[in-house]
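batch job 7 of whatever, protein = Cobalt-zinc-cadmium efflux system protein
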Amino acid sequence: MSAGHGHGHGVSAAADRKLLSGALALIVGFMIAEVIVGLAAGSLALVTDAAHMLTDAIAIALALLAIRLAAKPPAGGFTYGFKRVEILSAQANGTTLLLLAVYFVYEAVSRLIHPPEVKGALVLITGVVGIVVNLFATWLISKANRSSLNVEGAFQHILNDLFAFVATAIAGLVVLLTGFARADAIAAFVVAVLMLKAGVSLVRDSGRIFLEAAPIAIDPQSLGAELCAVEGVVEVHDLHVWEITSGEPAASAHVLVAEGLDCHQIRIRIEEVLAERHHLTHSTLQVDHATASQGPEHCSDSHGVVHRAVTGAGPAPDPASPHH
C-alpha cells in the first residue's frame, strides 16, 4: 500500500494574498468614494452600485480568509487540513452572483415599467471611473492562481462588476444623448445574464468537488481499463477519483495482480501511469495477489464497477455491471 504526493500551483499562496489584497484596497477605496458622491448628488443608483461593490469586497475578503485557512497544516480530525474552505468560499461567491442576478432582473423589470429620472452625465462619469478601477483590480486578480475555484470566484465578482460599469457607462451615454431612461434597465439585463452564467459555473464546479466527483478531465471507466492494461494486473475495483480541492486530484483503488509477480513493482508502474498520464500524484493503492480461492467475492463491500484484465482472468465484464 502506498501513497504518492505532489501538490503545487504556478502561483504561490503568498503571491495570491498580495494580489487579492491590492484588488481589495482598490475596491474598498472606490466604494467609499462612490457612496460619498452618491449621497452628495442624491443618486440612489450610485449608492446601490456601491452596495454591489460591497459584495465584491466581501468576496475578496472571503477568498483571502480561505487562502489563509487552507495554508494551515492538517491537525486533529482534519486530515486534509482546511483546503476545502477554498471551495466553500467559491460556493458562497457563486451563490451570491446568482442572487445578485435575480435582484438585477427584478430591478430591471421595475425600471422598464416605471423608468426613474436618470442623471446621464453623472452615471457616465461614474461608469468610466469604475471601468478604470475595475480594470486594474481585474488585472491584479488575473495574475493570481485562477486554477483555484476560490480565486476564480473573486475574479468573477470583479469581472462582472467591470461589465456592469461598462454597461452603466453606455447606458449613461445613451440617456445623456437621447433621454432614453430605459437604457439603464436594458444594461442591467445584460449584466444579470453574465452574472448568472458565472454563478452557475462556480456553483456547479464547487458542487462537483463537494460531491467528490471525478475531475472533468478524467473518466473513471477509461482509467480503470487503462490500469487493467498494466502488465500483471488482473483486476481493479474500489477505484475512486476525486479532488481534495481545485487543482488537487486524488485517487485510490484496490488492485489484484497475478500470483507470483512482484506487487511492489506493479504498484510503482501503476503510480507512474497515474502521475504521468493523468497528473494524479496523490494516490493510495492497495495491491494484493489474486488467488483462485478468493473468487469474485474478494471484497465483501466493494464500491462501483469492477475492472478485469481481458487476458488472464477471463472476458472483461460489462462496464455497467456492479462488483457483486
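notes: The first strand starts at residue 2 and ends at 4.
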